[in-house]
Design goal:
It contains six helices and three strands, in the order βββαααααα. The protein is globular. Helix 1 (40-58) crosses helix 4 and helix 3 (71-86) runs antiparallel to helix 4. The protein has 159 residues and is mainly α. A three-stranded antiparallel β-sheet has the order 1-2-3, with no helix packed on it.
Length: 159
C-alpha cells in the first residue's frame, strides 16, 4: 500500500474501489460503483473543524483547555455515548457521539497548535491502520488479516 494517499488517487479493494478525497477516503461497496467524488461528509467535517478552531480562538474557556484538562470531559462524554448505545436511543447516540467527536477533534487540534501533529495526520493514521488491519477488504494492504473465518452476522463479531 502507498504510504501517502493523495486526493483523487484510488486503490483497489477486494470488492470495490476507494478514492481519496483529501483528508477523507470514500469507498464503494460494489465493484461497479467506480470512483466517488468528495462527499457532503467531507464538507461537513471541514465546516465542523473550522468551527472548532473558531471556538478555540474566541472562547475564554476553550482557550484555557489542554489535552490534560480535557481528559475528564472526554471520559464523561464517552461514557454517556456508551450509555446511549446501551439504551438503543439513536437520537441520544447521535448527540453523544457528536460530543465524543468534538473532544477527539479538539484534543487533536490542541496538539496541532503545539506543532506535534495535525488533525489530518490523526485521520490519515487511523485510515492507514484500518487498511493495514483489513487485508481481507483492501487488496493493496500490506497487513495480515486477523480474520480466521467469514463473519456472517453482527452477532459473530460481538459473541
Amino acid at each position: 500500500m502507498k504510504e501517502n494517499i493523495k486526493s483523487g488517487e484510488s486503490f483497489p479493494l477486494a470488492s470495490a474501489t476507494v478514492v481519496s478525497t483529501g483528508s477523507t477516503t470514500a469507498s464503494s461497496a460494489t465493484p461497479s460503483a467506480g470512483h466517488i467524488p468528495a462527499t457532503p461528509l467531507s464538507k461537513s467535517f471541514s465546516k465542523f473543524y473550522e468551527t472548532v478552531k473558531a471556538v478555540r480562538a474566541g472562547c475564554p474557556w476553550d482557550k484555557d483547555q489542554t489535552p490534560l484538562s480535557l481528559r475528564s470531559t472526554f471520559f464523561e462524554e464517552t461514557c454517556e455515548a456508551i450509555d446511549a448505545i446501551t439504551c438503543e436511543d439513536s437520537a441520544h447516540v447521535k448527540e453523544e457521539l457528536g460530543d465524543v467527536l468534538l473532544n477527539v477533534v479538539l484534543i487533536a487540534y490542541l496538539f496541532e497548535e503545539k506543532g506535534l501533529f495535525t488533525v489530518e495526520e490523526t485521520i490519515n493514521s487511523i485510515n492507514e491502520k484500518l487498511i493495514r488491519r483489513h487485508p481481507h477488504v483492501f487488496a493493496e494492504s500490506e497487513g495480515r488479516s486477523q480474520v480466521k473465518e467469514k463473519v456472517e452476522s453482527p452477532e459473530g463479531v460481538t459473541s
